[in-house]
Predict the structure.
Amino acid sequence: MPSGVPAPDPPVVVRDATPADGAACAAVYAPYVHDTAVSFEDLPPTPDEMAGRIAAALASHAWLVAVLPPGTPDAGRVVGYAYAVPFAARPAYRWACETSVYLEPGRRRTGAGRALYSALLERLASLGYRQAVAGYAEPNPASAALHAALGFEPVGTFRDIGFKHGAWRDVTRVQRALGAGGTTPPE
Ligand SMILES: CC(C)(COP(=O)(O)OP(=O)(O)OC[C@H]1O[C@@H](n2cnc3c(N)ncnc32)[C@H](O)[C@@H]1OP(=O)(O)O)[C@@H](O)C(=O)NCCC(=O)NCCS
């Protein structure tokens, strides 16, 4: 590698999270809470709070982490995560889930987001979920591109729906079918 040219980010391995990944996931997420409107939270969750979120998602849906692979510096370090939670509480919504994915800031376009999200969508389909819904504050070209690449379609944009860091924020909602989607009754 010529000097001055940064080494490419290594690929990642995707595995199921455990609540012990709470601190690492909280560290990935915190900068998005503090510094951006990507997250609509004001205060980053503590490691314990994140562990609780992981446990809750694992109990009903899934929470996956991307880690640096064996043989690389920092092998096993969590560099991103993806998870799903219920889309809404009322019973008729129970086959629909809300998905989300976060990589540590600055991680380049190496397919880590796609690896995490593909694995998550496959898992959700195998669990019998039929629709995945996600939302991102505009503008977020990376999130828009990742969701489009994985078959999500825009269903609309809420205008000025959030206020963060001194500005009103639009949120685009996207959706894609999982498994048989709406073509057969749920199991
Ligand atoms: C969104 C995010 C997970 C994407 O992860 P990533 O590892 O960079 O994405 P990938 O390398 O897997 O790329 C997936 C697709 O999106 C495209 N893409 C990724 N970043 C892009 C960008 N900034 N601009 C345009 N396209 C982009 C890639 O070209 C790729 O398309 P292709 O497979 O058709 O070539 C990552 O940027 C991130 O963590 N962002 C901050 C958190 C966030 O916004 N999360 C979404 C909230 S729901």
Summary: The domain at 13-134 is CATH 3.40.630.30 (Aminopeptidase). The pocket of coenzyme A is lined by residues 32, 38, 100-103, 109-114, 134, 136, 140-143, 145-146, 149 (CB under 6 Å). The mean pLDDT is 95.
